[in-house]
Amino acid sequence: MITFPYPQYHPLIDEVVLRMYEAFPELHQFGEKGKQKCREDNEHHFHHLETAYQLDSEEIFVDYAIWLNGILVRHGMKTSHLIDNFERIAVAITGNIEKEKEEKFQLYIHQAIQVLRMEKTRNEQV
Asked: Rounded to two decimals, what is the model's pTM?
């Protein structure tokens, strides 16, 4: 397994996971394995945010969000779960990373959420 290359985000990831488990107590049924998987998922989110930032391309994060949502929905998750996760990341990074990066991350997250909401609406109409 590849080590997550951005350890500075671990406290933010821990905060996001904690808040998710507080909001959705049913997640506790998956035990510590489920919590670890949630952490890993959030590492992927931050990794893609960082890549989008380094390449100055919101499309990288938006495309990742669309791709990931397709996989999650096929496995019984809801788009609203991913949107909620992204919203929690947006809250967690506020004031906790350098300002320029925070602004870009917020842009990428909000654009991805907007696209996911459109996808969700379109899928509900089918």
From this structure: 0.92
